[in-house]
Amino acid sequence: MSPPSIDSLRRQCDGPRDGALLRFALGEALRDAGDLPAAIDELRRALAFDPLYSAAWKQLGRACLAAGRQADAAEAWRQGVAAADRRGDRQAQREMAVFLRRLERAGH
């Protein structure tokens, strides 16, 4: 997303539309723009709204990994696997389990 899209998403934060989906979209936009610390913060905010939001856990792990924070990525995916299991989201559960195994095999 372009910076104007990020600005548009940010203007909606703390308003009536604020929630997990908005923060998730903002986190993804920030990650795509290369602002990994801000992306991680927004994805964590998405999870504060909905701790079982498996897509947010998956993207949080990816953002942490891209930021060189392997331990944080592994923890996000562990929590994401558990959240996906509770929600019954088998596809996300399998994907994060694969990401976690790859990370662990790489020695992180």
Kindly describe this structure:
With 108 residues, the chain is an all-alpha fold. It has one domain (3-105): Tetratricopeptide repeat domain (Serine Threonine Protein Phosphatase 5, Tetratricopeptide repeat), CATH 1.25.40. 78% of the residues lie in helices and 0% in strands. The chain is built from six helices and no strands. The protein is globular, with a radius of gyration of 14 Å. 38% of the residues are buried.
Protein topology:
Blueprint: H1 3-12, H2 20-32, H3 36-49, H4 54-66, H5 70-87, H6 90-105
Structure summary:
With 108 residues, the chain is an all-alpha fold. The protein is built from six helices and no strands.
